[in-house]
Amino acid sequence: MKASISKSEIKGRVVAPSSKSYTIRGVMAAALANGESEIIRPLGSDDTEAAQGVLSEVGVHIRQDKGTWRVTGGNFHKPEKGLFCRESATTLRFMTAICSLIPGECRLTSAPSLSQRPIEPLIQALKQLGVDCHQDEGGAVVVRGSRLRGGTAELPGNISSQYVSALLFISPFAEEGMNIKLTTSLESQPFVQMTIECLAKFGIKVDASRDMREFKIVKQSYRPAKYRVEGDWSSASYLLGLGALCGEVEVENLNPASLQGDKAILDFLKEMGASVTAGENSVTVRKSKLQAIKADLNECIDLVPTMAVLAAAAEGTSEFTGIERARLKESDRPSAIAEGLMKMGIKVVEERDRLTITGSPVKGAVIDTRGDHRIAMAFSLLGLSGGGNVINDAECVSKTYPEFWEVLKKVGGKVKIDGE
Questions:
Q1: Predicted TM-score of the model (pTM)
Q2: 20 to 30 A Cα–Cα from 232, which one of 78, 134, 284, 393?
Q3: Catalytic: 211?
Q4: What pLDDT does 116 receive?
């Protein structure tokens, strides 16, 4: 599917979609609680459907009412077939750990793009805790579950915070308790803090060191809960950036006290000179003359595409560091960004852990998203601001924000989807 984007004047009010990260955390915690939980305002997307599908295969009952998922957990059984996690890295990594609690063998598979992303550090950590697991030659993760012994697991913190979160989910079941020690500093700390916050809602206490290098958890039980999912700052970043480039956008359903690292988009926009007004549950951004910025994006890695396209429209040369882990996402994002921006006439210097972008007027181009939802959404902003882009594989936005193209149209965006 292709989306043809033309220069547009934007004005309107939109509701930020619910957080993918919190939705998946909530449904996983509910699956581990004995009884019925409610997930209120969950996100419906490819990734959250992947999580639901896998959990249903191992005995978790999920009933969808309007705006609510009712999840009956605590009664796992061996799946009758392989567990296909689609392209959801969160689902694959969390379920790799959770399958250690399910008697019998579980075989987790994923789409080709995800099967290339690293999972071995998590497997090695689980083995230290007495779990029988490995990755086979085809890339599938095989876990043979039994009683979880627990103890101490050491693993790096600089590859994926999802490894730590995965261990935290199963830690309350460990007979000996669990002590998670990181051999490097933890990157993307906000995501682990989000996991700890979610677990607390379901009655689980985690003792984390001040430097987030060690986590201690004693044996305890999950309790069913009513869990409300807040708005997603990652998805909201495109809408807020749209306001800064093309007119005025008010984005509702945003928690100003959120732990989400991508809330940093507010500070970045202000530093670049955007007109930003924050309310109790919303943020309004108006078109402004943007200035270049230097920023470390290590703790808000999903903002790399958004910040890159804002820099392309800013006056001066911006520099972004801490971007290396963005190469391990749905695509090699720094490479995809550099390719797209250069097609649009923007000067880009790409290094392993640095992007340097010099803003200038953009020209239209056909953008290869490489099937990456964040590349598609980010480059739509430059199309609407004057570039006039064609976005290939536009359907990839369904991974986290299925309504994205319709939302752009709602606020005045000139967007034409093939076949319409």
A1: 0.94
A2: 393
A3: no
A4: 83
